[in-house]
């Protein structure tokens, strides 16, 4: 692997009751995150190819771990998202280089039919800072019930010369959605939007 990985953290959240209402089925969200050394920390580098390659490798590993934790078949995953937190000696562009050019392809490969844009966020912060992984429907980005997010916080990361890269998968949208719009059961699955 091209990345120097200090640690990998993973967790599952399972919601069974929301607003005092028992859900007809629990909604599970799984996150897997890698804390890596930022090979470009502290210097400007015009060529970000190394980070593209690391993003691809970690995309595969983190999505595989999250899917295993979710305990669902790939075709049962309804939402996905990605995020990165960059330590103070790095750039937001380092997070973008990890997430955008190549990280999505292995996630889509693992899940099968998942043409929607993978929601993402990036943040520069210090150890212990909270950051959110936005979530969206894997087939149709306009399914409002799946506009969601999950917070992650790692007490000792990212250090100044590190990046935390995280992938989240979920087997449903928000509990008890009531804001209308395109419903998951109505998805056509042709264009990544509807």
Any overview of this molecule?
- The protein has one domain: 2-Layer Sandwich (60s Ribosomal Protein L30, Chain: A).
- The chain has three helices and seven strands.
- The protein has helices spanning 49-70, 92-99, 104-111, and strands at residues 5-18, 21-37, 79-86, 120-124, 130-137, 148-153, 162-170.
- Strands 1, 2, 3, 4, 5, 6 and 7 form a seven-stranded mixed beta sheet that branches.
- α1 (49-70) crosses α2 (92-99) and α1 (49-70) packs parallel to α3.
- The N and C termini lie far apart (37 Å).
Can you tag this structure with a few keywords?
194 residues
Distance between the termini: 37 Å
Beta-strand content: 25-35%
Helix-strand string: EEHEHHEEEE
For the record, the CATH class is Alpha Beta
Mean pLDDT: 96
- The shape, in one word, is globular
State the fourth-level CATH superfamily. Answer: BB2672
Number of helices: 3
Tell me the count of domains. Answer: 1
Largest sheet: number of strands, sense, barrel closure:
7 strands, mixed
CATH architecture level-2 label? 2-Layer Sandwich
What is the total tally of β strands? 7
Uncertain regions: pLDDT < 50 for 5+ in a row? none
Indicate the percent of residues in helices.
10-25%
CATH domain fold name: 60s Ribosomal Protein L30, Chain: A
Query: Which class do the helix and strand fractions yield?
Result: alpha+beta
């Amino acid at each position: 692997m091209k990345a120097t990985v200090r640690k990998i953290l993973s967790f599952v959240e399972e919601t069974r009751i929301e607003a005092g209402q028992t859900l007809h089925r629990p909604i599970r969200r799984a996150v897997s995150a890698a804390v890596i050394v930022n090979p470009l920390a502290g210097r400007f580098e015009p060529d970000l190819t190394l980070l593209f390659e690391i993003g691809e490798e970690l995309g595969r590993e983190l999505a595989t771990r999250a899917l295993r934790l979710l305990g669902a078949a790939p075709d049962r995953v309804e939402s996905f998202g990605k995020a990165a937190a960059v330590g103070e000696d790095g750039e937001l562009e380092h997070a973008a280089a990890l997430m955008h050019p190549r990280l999505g392809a292995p996630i889509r490969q693992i899940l099968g039919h998942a043409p929607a844009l993978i929601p993402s966020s990036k943040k520069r912060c210090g150890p212990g800072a909270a950051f959110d992984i936005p979530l969206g429907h894997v087939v149709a980005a306009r399914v409002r019930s799946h506009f969601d997010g999950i917070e992650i916080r790692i007490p000792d990361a990212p250090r100044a010369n590190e990046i935390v890269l995280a992938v989240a998968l979920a087997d449903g949208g928000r509990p008890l959605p009531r804001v209308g719009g395109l419903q998951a059961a109505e998805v056509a699955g042709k264009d990544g939007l509807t």
